[in-house]
Structure formats: C-alpha cells, structure tokens
Specification:
The protein is α+β, with helices and mostly antiparallel strands. The protein has one domain. Helix content is about 55%, strand content about 15%. The protein has a 3-stranded antiparallel sheet, with helices on one face. It is globular and about 40 Å long. It starts with a strand and ends with a helix.
C-alpha cells in the first residue's frame, strides 16, 4: 500500500504532512520532503504499536493487493513487517 499524504504549507512557511491512511499521524518540517519523511516514520511506528493481529491483517491486505500496485505494496508491507518484528524485540 502506498501511504496517502496530505501536504500543505502554513503561514509561517512550515510544511505539514498528514498520513491519511493512519488516523492521527501528522508531522511538520521545513520542506515538504522533511515533513513527509517524519509523517511516514510516525505512521510506521503507529502501525507497529497496534495489536499485532490488527497490524498483521492490515499488512496482509496490502501484500495481497491487485497486480497494478502489487509490487510496491508488497515492498511496503515487507518493510512494515520488519519494523513490527524489530519493535517486538
């Protein structure tokens, strides 16, 4: 699965990134890339902190995606599965 990011620039010139696929994940940065990187890291942490069964089911749904996005989704799922395993140590 690809994360869906919302990006906007605030009046003070900070960039705000929101991961719409993971409720409550919002981060800011000096550039759009910095804000997005922080938000994606937070999303991975949030997914890893869920009940293992919930997170595994979500990851499996990404891995089992249709062929158009399958390779990218599998890679994302594998990265998140590694993060889950590492967080359990």
């Amino acid at each position: 699965m690809q994360f869906t990011l919302g990006l906007k620039q605030e009046a003070d010139r900070r960039w705000i990134a929101e991961v719409r696929d993971v409720p409550g994940v919002i981060a800011n940065g000096e550039t759009p890339g910095q804000a997005a990187d922080k938000a994606i890291s937070l999303a991975i942490e949030a997914l890893a902190s869920r009940k293992p069964g919930d997170a595994v089911a979500l990851l499996q749904s990404w891995i089992d995606a249709d062929e158009e996005e399958a390779q990218e989704q599998r890679e994302t799922g594998e990265i998140l599965q590694r993060a889950l395993r590492e967080s359990r140590r």
